[in-house]
Amino acid sequence: MDLPQALLYVAGAVLLGLAGVGVGVGVGVLGARFLEGIARQPELLPMLRTQFFIVMGLVDAIPIIGVAIALYILFAVVGG
Amino acid sequence: MASEILTSNEYIKHHLQNWVFGQHADGSWGFAHTAQEARQMGFWAIHLDTMLWSIVLGAAFLWLFSKVGKSATSSAPGPLQNFVEWVVEFIDENVRSSFTAKNDMVAPLALTLFVWVLLMNTMDLVPVDWLPLTAQFIGQLFGADPHHVFFKVVPTTDPNATFGMAFGVFYLMLYYSFKMKGPIGFAAELTMQPFQAANPILKILFVPVNLFLEGISLISKPVSLSLRLFGNLFAGEMIFILIALLFSGGWILGLMGGLLQWAWAVFHILIVLLQAFIFMTLTVVYLDMAHHEH
């Protein structure tokens, strides 16, 4: 395998990995606060759940785009 | 599934290519037969598959909801009317909670955007090869080479469609900003914050900085709105295509692929719903911001 191809594999792996790290921290903090909020005020659960999913969709967007581009690089650009 | 002639690489690229109509490099008009030809067509190329599916789904939504609306009855509503009422109430509730100004146009817009985006996203759950293979078959009947028939089913995996919708929302934001605040109010909003000062000289000095910051936040709204929807659906489609590659690898891999496809489809229902909902909510929130002075 020549260097440019190997670098593309590394690029895909770094993209996938960093996307995972970022979304892990983001959704982790979000979920912790969500549970904390419910534990304090259980009657707010329906409202908090909607907001939780909205914010999770926002947090999730960039990593999932990264995953798509990484998979595209790994399978369509370098893969044969 | 991937035929013997196609490598997995070509299979993926074939699936990611739109059905394009435009002007060829030699000046004649027609369909693009390869991805390279489609690229050469430049700006005035039209993605026929995106247009077809988005218009068909939009028309289906309008037809269904207007049919139910016309024959609505209060005595004994059928299941269809109950469903439509539930959707309308859901949107109404959401718009009421996040839109505080008075505008009769926003709730119908939110309903249209939500159901339309949802329908377009739902096309992602149709197995990736069914409709393209059908299109190839139909194309063959009209004398086209099946390898030149490209058909991308999900309109929201085409950035042209999502950017088109986001520009529509952006236009409405600008329109209502001008209408509600007037040109001076809108200009003041862009230039007088976030840095404020009582001293008139400092105020003038802050104008370019504020304009730069506010300009970025204004432009980033439609861009992030469209890229978020496109990215999520493109990722989902990409993973479906990769799973579909497994079907060409013998029956054990094929069985695994079937299970994986089912699992990803179940997970993807969440994304499909969530992204349609986020698109709608953010549209309402942006329009709400356009109606209020800060």
Brief sketch in words of this structure:
Chain A has 80 residues and is mainly alpha-helical. Chain A has helices spanning 3-40, 45-78.
Largest sheet of chain A: none
CATH superfamily of chain A: F1F0 ATP synthase subunit C
| Binned strand content of chain B | under 5%
* Number of discrete helical segments of chain B: 9
Show unreliable segments of chain B: none
Low-pLDDT stretches of chain A: none
The percentage helix of chain A is over 70%
Strand segment count of chain B: 3
Structural category of chain B = mainly alpha
Explain the overall architecture.
The complex is a heterodimer of chains A (80) and B (294). Chain A has 80 residues and is mainly α. Chain A has helices spanning 3-40, 45-78. In chain A, helix 1 (3-40) packs antiparallel against helix 2 (45-78). Chain A is elongated. The relative contact order of chain A is 0.18. The model of chain A has no long low-confidence stretch (mean pLDDT 86). Chain B has one domain (50-130, 155-291). Helix content of chain B is 70%, strand content 3%. Chain B has 9 helices and 3 strands, in the order αββαβααααααα. In chain B, a hairpin with a 5-residue loop joins strand 1 and strand 2 (29-31). Chain B is globular, with a radius of gyration of 23 Å. The mean pLDDT of chain B is 86.
Map the helices and strands.
The complex is a heterodimer of chains A (80) and B (294).
Chain A: H1 3-40, H2 45-78
Helix pairs in contact in A: 1-2
Chain B: H1 8-15, E1 20-23, E2 29-31, H2 35-40, E3 46-47, H3 48-70, H4 79-98, H5 106-122, H6 130-141, H7 159-191, H8 200-245, H9 250-291
Antiparallel strand pairs in B: 1-2, 1-3
